[in-house]
Fold this protein.
Amino acid sequence: MQRDLLDALRCPGTHEESWLVAMVSHAEGPELLEAELACPVCAAEYRITGGVALFADRQPVDDDEPYTSDMVLRLAAMLGVAESPLPVALVGRYAAASGVLASFVAAPQLLVNSGAPTNAPGVSHIVVADRLPLGVETLAAIAVDEDYASPALLESAARALRLGGRLVAPADVPIPAGMRELARDEVEWVAETTVRASGLIELRRRAPESVQ
Ligand SMILES: [Zn+2]
């Protein structure tokens, strides 16, 4: 997992948003290979091992279908990102597009519940259960495959997207609240966020509206 992603991580526990405290035991340059992640609110602990951040047990993954350049170009068009400092997330089978997508989209990549981790630069790997452990406005775009497109995961994806960020998901699942459909075919729809999610900012004290 890339060290830069630490700032975006939040405890997936059901409490107010909280950063995770990292104790890094092995890193190589920007890549965290072994670390403990702890939540200061609920005391949950998660691990980065072999470069993969584990928020759930790793499940066996079927061999991913290879992506042709045409398929990846289509995916890149749906994601609508040419260049971004925020990561593009690829969940499940979409992670197989990672290598080719990197030649079209200049952004870090976050591979979620993917097959074997690659050691490509700028690519992070995490394993999750039914929600993404990410803060608000931490992703440029995300594609979620049919195995992981639960309402809870899509809702967490919508929260994590920046304003105008796009979500690609299977045609037969509902679009989360706060998103507007841009296009669909028989396989997928693509929608963009139209409202700003609230997260840690709620914890900040508002300035007094008037001073007596
Ligand atoms: Zn927690």
Summary: The chain has two domains: 3-54, 69-198. The radius of gyration is 17 Å.
